[in-house]
Amino acid sequence: MSALAKSAIALCSLALLAACGRIIPESTPTAPADPASFTSALMAGVTSGPSVAGLRIGSEDARAGLRSFVESCPSLLRRDDATGLTRQEDWRAACDAARSYGGAPESFFETYFETARIGSGEAFATGYFEPEIRGCRTRKPGCEVPVYALPDDLTRAWPADMPESERTGRPPLGRFDDEGNFVRYYDRTQIEEGALEGSRLELAWAADPVEMFFLQIQGSGRLALDDGTVMRIGYAGQNGHGYTGIGGVMRERGLLGDGPGQYAGSMQGIMQYIRENPEEGRDLMRLNKSWIFFTELTGDGPLGSLGIPVRRESSVAVDPKFVPYGAPVWLDLDRDVADGLWIAQDTGGAIKGANRFDTFWGAGEDARTIAGGMSGRGTAYILLPKGTVDRLNSQ
């Protein structure tokens, strides 16, 4: 999960679940990808695309994009760009102008940006949303699924028996047991069976364990509380166990498909199977040992990887090695609803490689429907400050 994802977690048509903050269509064909040796946009290759004016950005699309771009500018001006495409100062003119831009919003993008194709430019996009489920501040009958905050004993350390030569990167997540040994943290089954009871970590209680399972995969969401208020929760951390997408498992077992006795390959179909087969469904969910911890959020939207709210039909999750965080992105897909201007403000564990995107659709039933059916292919262009492509290709 991203920080939302940290988020992070795309709901998709053949749905399901691949990284902390998303529900990914594991059973769809592999997204178009550049060779595995490419580890950044610069390595994949950058070529000029059409003029920004030629994209014919709509006024409302441009207005929403400009708002999200302004919110992203602090990150653009302080972060090093992992793609290798831009430098912090490249964005300054556009960011300075964006804060008080008085002209037509589409002309802003035409004035300050050019389009770039990364690798082949062949794009694959899924969708994610902010789920809303029923919950309560205090435990009561019918509202007994804990929403846990980040535990104090969840930490990173090297196991004592791991040789020094193997201790590279960040230490793994785990905890110290009563004997002082560093061990793996509790997995989903252990937590569901009460490993954290009495820890006073409960932020709230959810009414439906199945809905809560999917909210964890999304990485953030809203609890419609029994007192009539709404509580927004966001990703605070994860237990260190690997993610297993149950959609892929179900397809391997022949449970998903169009045949007799099979369930639709969507989030709705998977939920239907779990509800109609509660014991098998519980065991299936427990194959995903990952557990997400939450924090209560304030503000007008769930937070993406940049620590700012992601917004419906404006924010898109990307692989930050291939798209600069905060950069505008133009998508032209075979799913017309996702065509248009997006701003790169989030990421996700399954959003990897060039031209891989996860579009955000907000909250509500229509958001669930659109995100749940989003599996689009087409073309992507990254909007970069003017002069960037020539500079890169002259080096």
From TrEMBL:
<feature type="signal peptide">
    <location>
        <begin position="1"/>
        <end position="18"/>
    </location>
</feature>
<feature type="domain" description="Lytic transglycosylase MltA">
    <location>
        <begin position="132"/>
        <end position="295"/>
    </location>
</feature>
<dbReference type="Pfam" id="PF03562">
    <property type="entry name" value="MltA"/>
</dbReference>
<dbReference type="Pfam" id="PF06725">
    <property type="entry name" value="3D"/>
</dbReference>
<dbReference type="InterPro" id="IPR026044">
    <property type="entry name" value="MltA"/>
</dbReference>
<keyword id="KW-0732">Signal</keyword>
<dbReference type="GO" id="GO:0009254">
    <property type="term" value="P:peptidoglycan turnover"/>
</dbReference>
<dbReference type="InterPro" id="IPR036908">
    <property type="entry name" value="RlpA-like_sf"/>
</dbReference>
<dbReference type="GO" id="GO:0009253">
    <property type="term" value="P:peptidoglycan catabolic process"/>
</dbReference>
<dbReference type="GO" id="GO:0071555">
    <property type="term" value="P:cell wall organization"/>
</dbReference>
<dbReference type="InterPro" id="IPR010611">
    <property type="entry name" value="3D_dom"/>
</dbReference>
<keyword id="KW-0456">Lyase</keyword>
<dbReference type="InterPro" id="IPR005300">
    <property type="entry name" value="MltA_B"/>
</dbReference>
<dbReference type="GO" id="GO:0004553">
    <property type="term" value="F:hydrolase activity, hydrolyzing O-glycosyl compounds"/>
</dbReference>
<protein>
    <recommendedName>
        <fullName>peptidoglycan lytic exotransglycosylase</fullName>
        <ecNumber>4.2.2.n1</ecNumber>
    </recommendedName>
</protein>
<dbReference type="GO" id="GO:0019867">
    <property type="term" value="C:outer membrane"/>
</dbReference>
<keyword id="KW-0961">Cell wall biogenesis/degradation</keyword>
<dbReference type="GO" id="GO:0008933">
    <property type="term" value="F:peptidoglycan lytic transglycosylase activity"/>
</dbReference>
